[in-house]
Specification:
Blueprint lengths: L5 E5 L7 H18 L2 E5 L3 H7 L3 E5 L2 E6 L1 H6 L4 H6 L4 E9 L1 E4 L2 E4 L6 E9 L4 E2 L6 E10 L3 E8 L2 E8 L9 E6 L4 E5 H6 L7
Length: 204
């Protein structure tokens, strides 16, 4: 009987439909826990990586760019490409001074920001918006897409285009003004030189 210590799974679910993929992810996770076999699961699907992985290694042009638990990629990506892959859809030009970031959207402070000074890209998760209708940031809705439980908005904030996702009960039409605030816990910064080297551009 074959009892491998490591099992390599190279995109085993890529050709399945959505519902079957969900079921197979559950089976793979259960088998992994029951047998205790180390599984190396290769995928281009970030949701799949997060659901299945205890640790994720993000590959960028053949090199391992970041390794850690899934939570790290959603809290503090180390590069602009890692940020984009794991759902940080907005990268806005800003200036950072220590733990404080100045941008056209406002000034944001997090004590756990990587301490740096100079030009950065402020990474903003699309679900960072709150205080809709009463916040201090204003923009014009240029796109609105109903996705079920949420609405995906594209907002023009004085030339800066943001992708935001909010609960479907917040229904704004194209052309309307939307005010909101940004949750600092859903913000991060990436050095602008690194982003340029990766070919990543800021939101505009």
């Amino acid at each position: 009987m074959t009892e491998p210590k490591v099992l390599l799974l190279d995109e085993p679910l890529s050709s399945l439909d959505a519902q079957l993929r969900t079921e197979m992810r559950r089976h793979i996770k259960r088998i992994n826990h029951e047998l205790g076999i180390t599984m190396l699961f290769v995928t281009h699907d970030q949701h799949e990586a997060v659901v299945l992985g205890d640790r994720i290694a993000f590959m960028d042009e053949g090199n391992v760019a970041q390794v850690g638990p899934p939570q790290d990629f959603f809290a503090r990506p180390v590069s602009a490409r890692a940020a984009r892959f794991f759902g940080w859809e907005n990268l806005v030009g800003a200036t950072q001074l220590g733990h404080k970031v100045h941008s056209t959207l406002g000034i944001f402070t997090r004590t756990d920001f990587d301490a740096r000074s100079g030009a950065v890209l402020l990474a903003i998760r699309p679900d960072a918006a709150y205080n809709l209708g009463t916040g201090s940031i204003e923009g014009t809705v240029v796109e609105a897409t109903f996705t079920g439980s949420q609405i995906a908005y594209r907002i023009d904030c004085t030339g800066v285009l943001l992708n935001l996702r909010v609960a479907a009960r917040h229904n704004y039409a194209v052309g309307q003004t939307l005010s909101f605030d940004l949750d600092p816990s859903m913000l991060w910064t990436v050095a602008v030189e690194q982003a340029r080297a990766e070919g990543i551009r800021q939101a505009r």
